[in-house]
User: What shape does this take?
Amino acid sequence: MNAMDPTNPMNEVRDRSDHQGPGEADVHDLSERLRQPDTADVAALVDAALRRADAEGLVDVGWVVEDTPIGPLTLAATSAGVVRIGFGHEEPMLDELASEVSPRVVHLPGRLDEVRRELEEYFAGRRRSFDVPVDRRLSRGYRRTVLEALSREVPYGQTVSYKELAERTGNPKASRAVGSAMATNPIPIVVPCHRVLRSGGALGGYGGGLDTKVWLLRHEGALLG
Amino acid sequence: MAVTLPPFQSLLDAHARDLHRFLVAAAGSHDGDDLFQETVISALRSYPGLRHADNLRGWLFTIAHRKIIDQARARVRQAVPAADPPEVSHLDVDVLVDAELWDAMRRLPPKQRSAVVQRYVLDRPYAEIAAVIGSSEDAARQNVRAGLQRLRQEVAP
Assistant: This one.
């Protein structure tokens, strides 16, 4: 039987003209009563659910946005450590993490507590190297070798040229490859690619912009004026 | 073919509020909060195994609908042997002021509850309701109609 048929005796609740749903005057009243606003703090419930999910090992990537003197940074970590730092509010960064690490990417500030504290100390001038574990899975091959050498061998306040860094990895002709390793560094600041300059002292490039590179080098006392 | 799933967070950003509304309307504010968390956790658990990203909203609400059914079954099992019947409905008056209506809602069979809430609380079209409760569009319409009719009988106008 056709539900729209007004002669249908089963059809006590007739369809509304603007909708396909049942409706008469009292149904309208009822549907108004059903339309109460949800005043709950859903964000707090989501946070609580995600903390529980994290305890069950279900969060592959947790992230947070942190305000710093060089602007907002998006920080992301796996259970192994900091996996990615992006300049600004980086939605593209989260998409990239979803496709390259896992789609289980969620806002999980607690996961980033340690790196946030160390960054805060670094920006306040109270920290010269980072102790937080890093997860280097987004760098492979020679690029990864170069970034590891950088973390190990170029301390706070010092700089090195692309060519020198290539030499330190035992590969003196690889300065172009070193340049691309720096340009694709997934974990800037913590892995200090801002300390790598052109031979002769020209700044070279920086993913966060040259102003940021200059700011960081001045902050570390590696660049005067 | 590999499917590209968006970051799970984007699903939460887009749908968490409606998901919570759905569960609180269908299960009460106390149980609704619990079911909401369980839905988020279950969804996160199975998310990487999804083979397509066509209707992620529908997928989320289907999980939520199953939580409502599971809870209704658990309540039936629970209610029989208990000497002191457990408090069936825990209403937070700040969230749901119309206790009579929401109590009546909780007495509906879970499919009708989901259908009525999807239709009248969330304003969803029947095709979507059908997907959520796993039925035909006609059956979805029937569930909305039957649920609403029963609510009208139980609730003072």
Observations:
- The helical segments of chain B are 8-27, 29-46, 56-79, 99-106, 110-121, 126-133, 137-154.
